[in-house]
Amino acid sequence: MNVRVPAKINLCLGVGPVRDDGYHPLATVYQAVDLHDEVRATGRDDDQITVSVHSEMDVRSEISVVPDGDDNIAVKAARLLRERTGISSGVDLSIRKVIPVAGGMAGGSADAAAALVACNEVWGTGLSRPALEVLAAQLGSDVPFLLHGGNAVGGGRGETVSPVLARGSYHWVFAMAHEGLSTRAVFAEFDRLNTGAEVPEPVVPDALLAALRAGDAEALGAALSNDLTEAAFSLRPELEDTLSIGIEAGALGAILSGSGPTALFLASDEAHSLDIAFALSSAAGCADVVQSRGPVPGARVG
Ligand code: ATP
């Protein structure tokens, strides 16, 4: 059973004041993009759950830091599904990683979403998509969206996903950094930079929703926003140069993906996207450049 699952980007990422439980309220618009991990699940005769991780793109994926035991979030997903359905079956999970590790594109969450779908099939547990979404929310903030795919508004700490009216297919260029950035460290830096300041409740900008409704790439480019930018720049000053190079190459918009360090650039068409990719390929802070499209569907068998 093979499940393909996309990466996510945040077209806007509004971050509110830290809550008592340590999480920050988020107001985001997610888009699933054409950069996929694959999770293969093979049933076992015993109750073991194993995982192996592979990649053909070592630089981008840094797969050596991906746990190959119980800490792997795909294993946690399989265990949670087993617990909730009361079965005792085992499974071998094999993950083919393409989504950058610690890149701000929710690669781990994507694998968790894929593992839920794959194990639900292999074990014949028959949970509906809404039932899987409940489990997904317990695994991580981005996991429900990666089941969903397309475009969606994310609230709460990101796990509350609601549909958004959207038109159009967008051309993206992603600049992957040489080294990942910890989401936790970027949020801690956000808190440090905002010490003593009144952080407002986050909102999704109206201009962004209007651009998506109209399918207007130029307006979407102008409306892209990310409240974690300053914090990520503070930890990785060279990211500012990467964004500038894409903007100079004529990108309609440029922001960091989630907590970074992947930078994303919106292009008007395929040729424009190639120009931007070419300009970025010589940037010092850039390990790899990928052209992609979005939106695409969420975790799917196939
Ligand atoms: P997000 O965008 O959701 O904040 P990210 O894309 O920046 O996350 P991930 O690639 O999801 O970061 O991984 C963050 C950490 O989670 C990794 O450094 C790794 O130690 C751990 N991890 C656990 N399981 C996985 C997995 N299946 N794939 C990748 N990382 C995993």
UniProtKB/TrEMBL annotation:
Q: In which pathway does it act?
A: Isoprenoid biosynthesis; isopentenyl diphosphate biosynthesis via DXP pathway; isopentenyl diphosphate from 1-deoxy-D-xylulose 5-phosphate: step 3/6
Q: Kindly list the biological process annotations in GO that this record carries.
A: isopentenyl diphosphate biosynthetic process, methylerythritol 4-phosphate pathway; terpenoid biosynthetic process
Organism's domain of life?
A: Bacteria
Enzyme Commission code(s) on record? 2.7.1.148
From the Swiss-Prot or TrEMBL record, what is one GO molecular function term?
4-(cytidine 5'-diphospho)-2-C-methyl-D-erythritol kinase activity
- Can you tell me which residues bind ATP? 100-110
Q: Which reaction does it catalyse?
A: 4-CDP-2-C-methyl-D-erythritol + ATP = 4-CDP-2-C-methyl-D-erythritol 2-phosphate + ADP + H(+)
What Pfam families does the record tag this protein with? GHMP_kinases_C, GHMP_kinases_N
Alphabetical keyword list: ATP-binding, Isoprene biosynthesis, Kinase, Nucleotide-binding, Transferase
Question: Which InterPro entries is this protein grouped with?
Answer: GHMP_kinase_C_dom (IPR013750), GHMP_kinase_C_sf (IPR036554), GHMP_kinase_N_dom (IPR006204), IspE (IPR004424), Ribosomal_Su5_D2-typ_SF (IPR020568), Ribsml_uS5_D2-typ_fold_subgr (IPR014721)
Where is each GHMP kinase C-terminal domain found?
Answer: 208-282
Location of the GHMP kinase N-terminal domain: 72-150
Q: Which residues form the active site?
A: 8, 142
Q: Which SUPFAM superfamilies match?
A: GHMP Kinase, C-terminal domain, Ribosomal protein S5 domain 2-like
User: What functional role does this protein have?
Assistant: Catalyzes the phosphorylation of the position 2 hydroxy group of 4-diphosphocytidyl-2C-methyl-D-erythritol.
Q: Which family does the entry's similarity section mention?
A: Belongs to the GHMP kinase family. IspE subfamily.
- State what protein this is by name: 4-diphosphocytidyl-2-C-methyl-D-erythritol kinase
Species name: Aeromicrobium endophyticum
